[in-house]
Specification:
Length: 209
């Protein structure tokens, strides 16, 4: 039996994933968490072979959680399940230690197959991600400037480009407006862009929104 823990801050999404996995007789959802604090406690007390992890969560984001698990040599295998663009986040997650990356908008059967693959200790990647990995190996020098951004910096870029105000971004990410402003400044410095409008143009040209 494959023991799975779900970590997503939306209860409706967790229910949908749980219902999908319930169709597989060899998979059992043993726990659910809405954020890092719950997840940390859950992993101490609950059997978990595969963690299905969302990236966009308030407080400590999914990539930070993933990096923490990897650095602590956790035996839990992580399958990222996210709405973020595959071409922008999949390789980033795999490099951080994830065993696979699937889209929330994907086929339910793919989620079951990915969970089984990851539980076996193998990596699960779609054909699109496999091609991106091959391209990144063949042409490492062509990596985009935003690849150097941290998870929070990239989230800030995408949210600003989507028209959100700093105060709204701060509330959504459970950060102070001052902290979000610091992230914006770092993004502008790293990308060499002077204004929010320039950030928006950059995000559109690089398919970030």
């Amino acid at each position: 039996m494959i023991h799975v823990v779900l970590c997503d801050d939306h209860a409706v999404v967790r229910r949908g994933i749980r219902d999908t996995l319930s169709e597989a007789v060899d998979i059992k959802v043993t726990g659910e968490a809405g954020g890092y604090a719950e997840l940390r406690e859950l992993l101490r007390t609950t059997p978990c072979d595969v963690l299905l992890l969302d990236l966009s969560m308030p407080g400590r984001g999914g990539l930070e959680v993933l990096t923490g698990l990897t650095e602590s040599d956790s035996p839990v295998k992580v399958l990222v399940v996210s709405m973020f663009p595959v071409d922008q986040y999949a390789i980033r997650c795999l490099r951080a230690g994830a065993k696979g990356y699937v889209s929330k908008a994907g086929d339910p059967d793919e989620l079951i197959a990915a969970t089984r693959t990851v539980a076996q200790g193998r990596k699960y990647v779609t054909a699109e991600v496999a091609q991106m990995l091959a391209d990144s190996v063949a042409r490492p020098a062509l990596e985009t400037p935003h690849a150097a951004l941290s998870e929070r910096e990239l989230q800030t870029l995408m949210k600003i480009a989507s028209g959100q105000r700093l105060s709204d971004i701060a509330e959504e990410l459970m950060l102070s407006p001052k902290t979000v402003s610091v992230y914006r400044t770092r993004v502008m410095e790293k990308l060499g862009l002077p204004t929010n409008a320039a950030l928006t143009v950059y995000a559109i040209r690089n398919n970030l929104i």
